[in-house]
Amino acid sequence: MRILIGCDTFAPDINGAASFAKRLGAGLAARGHDVHVIAPAQAHRVGTFAEVFDGQTLTVHRVYSWRWLPHPWLRFMLPWRMKANSRKVIDAMHPDVVHFQSHIVVGSGLAPVAKSRGIRIVGTNHTMPENVLQHVTIFPQPMLDWLARVQWKAAARIFRMADVITSPTQSSASYFEKMTGLTQVVAISNGIDTTAYTPEFTRQPDNRVVYVGRLDEEKHVDELIRAAARMDPALDVQVDIVGGGEVKQKLRDLAASLGVSDRVHILGKVSDEELRATLTRGTVFAMPSRAELQCIAAMEAMATALPVVAANAMALPHLVHEGENGHLYEPGDIDGLAAALTDVLTAGPEKLDRMKRASLEVVAHHSMAHTLDVFEALYRGEPVAGIVADPVSGPETITAPE
């Protein structure tokens, strides 16, 4: 098939939506499909390029974009340029299917053009407007609330054009339906290549907690640093924080003010090899974010056989089963987070081994191969076995609307 994937954020950006689109495109290309991507240009590198991701060559159409100055990396395409480029790319490549990853800019350009050409459309929602608007701090909260409502209405208008709507987990799909009034949203895991990670069962010499993700306010990484400061000094807890973002210096300052700078290591952006090595060195993975629509980083940790301690919010309870492969804590409860981390770090060999194996069992339901199977079927309009959010419930058969 000729497949056009539309992204408001794409590699080299590091976030869940960009990572999913990259892996999806590369996985489809490896199966012999002709994959094109339309995405923001980086540093005004505008044009069509052959770009290699995960060993696969994709045709990437880079559209002129502006950087949102308050944010360290976020770029956005201009709506009128997106519409013109949508027509240009679609009419040049004649895709069999258009798969947009966001309604905000790329979907608003691609969906109407694809609809008018009679092309099959799949729309995947990775965003919550409330999170995006946290970067617009120049506006008062009442205006941000109003803008969130406007964005949800825009999402409903754009996604209504899609033949199929998907979201990474059942909880995110249900939330999307609640906020847009749309129905029959299919929950399909973002998926990861579990074979790229090596489960480690040897007890590590350090009590090391790992976080991987953006360093933005919405991720609440400060809670992890505050929890580390409250844990028993005898544990000598080391915290490895992987990722970049607007609050990186703020987190360093917080660690210094709490007297834990020597135990909090902000590693910044790292290579895939360094990421896997960091996970292997870890004892437990922590995710304090309250707005994860799935959390690829947690799944990568689980594929390395790490127990996970996470906020009891959004999709995280679908990955973390309390007392089995880790613990959930109530968002904002620093003492609860510290206690949960302490429980894992002080667990005996048998208990820790049991948690590690439980993580592997949960993540096994999220293989990238199955995710690719599902999307290929959706692209063709075939019935699919969707990967639902909670693996305990098992997969459910969903018929894609015609």
List keywords for this structure.
Glyco_trans_1; 14 helices; Rossmann fold; six-stranded parallel beta sheet; transferase; eight-stranded mixed beta sheet; D-inositol 3-phosphate glycosyltransferase; alpha/beta; 2 domains
Describe this structure in words.
The relative contact order is 0.12. Mean pLDDT is 89; it is low at 386-402. Strands 3-4-2-1-7-8-9-10 form an 8-stranded mixed sheet, sandwiched between helices. The protein has helices at residues 16-30, 79-93, 103-116, 129-132, 141-159, 170-180, 221-230, 248-257, 272-281, 296-303, 316-319, 334-345, 349-363, 368-380, and strands spanning 2-6, 34-40, 47-53, 56-63, 65-67, 75-77, 97-100, 120-124, 164-167, 186-187, 208-212, 238-242, 264-268, 284-287, 308-311, 326-329, 384-386, 396-398. Helix 3 runs parallel beside helix 5 and helix 10 crosses helix 13 (349-363). The chain has 2 domains: 2-191 and 367-398, Rossmann fold (3-Layer(aba) Sandwich); 194-364, Glycogen Phosphorylase B (Rossmann fold). The radius of gyration is 21 Å and the shape is globular. It is built from 14 helices and 18 strands. Strand 5 (65-67) and strand 6 (75-77) form a beta hairpin.
Query: Going by CATH, what is the homologous superfamily of the largest domain?
Result: Glycogen Phosphorylase B
What is the general shape? globular
How much of the sequence is in beta strands? 15-25%
Category from helices, strands and their pairing:
alpha/beta
Largest sheet: 8 strands, mixed
Question: In CATH terms, what is the architecture of the largest domain?
Answer: 3-Layer(aba) Sandwich
Low-confidence stretches: 386-402
What's the overall average pLDDT, rounded? Answer: 89
Would you state the CATH class of the largest domain? Answer: Alpha Beta
What is the CATH topology descriptor of the largest domain?
Rossmann fold
The portion of residues assigned to helices is 25-40%
Distance between the termini: 18 Å
Count of structural domains: 2
Strand order of the largest sheet: 3-4-2-1-7-8-9-10
